[in-house]
Amino acid sequence: MSEPIELREYESTTVRLSVSQASRLTAAGHGAVAVSLTDEPGLYSLTAQNMVGTLIVDDLRILIRPKIRPENLFLLLEVGLPNKAWRQEAFDYATSVDLLPSIVAFFARTLQTTLARGLLRSYRPEEERLVALRGRIDVATQFCQAGVPMPVACRYDEYTPDIFENRYVKAAARLALRVPGVQAEDRRRLLQQVVALEDVSDDPVRPDDLDRLLITRLNEHYEPALRLARLLLENLTLVDQSGNRKASSFLLDMDKLFEDFVTQRLQHSLRGRLQVLSQVTYHLGLNRKVQIRPDLVFRKQGKEVYVADIKYKLTADASARNSDYYQLLAYTTALDLPEGVLIYCLAEGGRPERTVTVRHAGKLLHTRAINLSGPPDSVTAEISQTADWIASQANRLTIR
């Protein structure tokens, strides 16, 4: 494989590619890189988009880094651990460029800590024919073998580690073991955890299966490992190369990461003050015409009191895109609200315009920027300030 091509988000570079390479990169690049031909034959412009991580297409390896600090990328993963938990992985990523080994290391260490508390177990109903009675007799099944007393059809509850949580993390651990370039210590950790989970079946799991899991006080210590497992299962693609070589593509959507992070943090900060709903469907037109789905709707006593849209990227001059204002205006109009807010990731060029007043409508379209260039504690403080500001705005509107 050739030397990797390194890019930052939305950064461009020119590389020499064959027509077939450019075509395959366009077709199989997952939208991570825009490919365009320059004036010079054989020379192509590659522009990174909103994905970060490792992209493998044939013999091309492209490493895309975020513009934000490495520790804040791990903060956006929102796995439910304190900031210091990923300090080593953030440092490794800052020095090695390749994100995937750092994510695998983070998962391996988190899973080791989780399982050190003991395998999570639960009761599972079983039905089996046994030579000795266990649990209760399954009368209906037993009568089906009239005149034959043995074996006895039994029903009982098995206290077993073969439950969804363990199957999910085991699937991610097995997948991570196939990733090349992982440190020997992390590979050893993963092997130890797979051995610890040997009584857990290898049933296939899907990333979105986790959405159906209820987190309780009994399994909440598994939550960070489960969230990291989902990242691997959802974003890791193993690619077989010729001979004995293997490669892995791993891409994270920064737009989605930022949106999910802001949503979860605001839901936590506003608990007890406002109900925070995500991606609720409304309609712009009468008779349920034209569906719209605001990123965030804030309710108080069952009534919509505020609306927000979350955007990761500003334009180069630190101004919000016109289309974003149009979108927010549609939300405030459909929900009959006098104002709303665009929540942005702070651009390098500065903060956007604070408030736009819509002509002839009087609606106020605010912007709030979250600065991801500072340390994680500073980011957390900015989210809390934004939550307080939204609560204050909503309270002001409801007491008019």
Describe the structure.
The chain is an alpha+beta fold and about 400 residues long. Helices cover about 35% and strands about 25% of the residues. It has helices spanning about 20-30, 70-75, 85-95, 100-115, 140-145, 165-175, 185-195, 225-235, 255-270, 320-335, 375-400, and strands at about 5-10, 10-15, 35, 45-50, 50-55, 60-65, 120-130, 135, 150-160, 235-240, 245-255, 275-280, 280-285, 290, 295-300, 305-310, 340-345, 355, 365-370. The strands form 5 sheets. A 6-stranded mixed β-sheet has the order 12-15-16-17-19-18, with helices on both faces. A 5-stranded mixed β-sheet has the order 1-6-5-11-10. Helix 10 (about 320-335) links the parallel strand 16 (about 305-310) and strand 17. The radius of gyration is 26 Å and the shape is globular. The N and C termini lie far apart (about 65 Å).
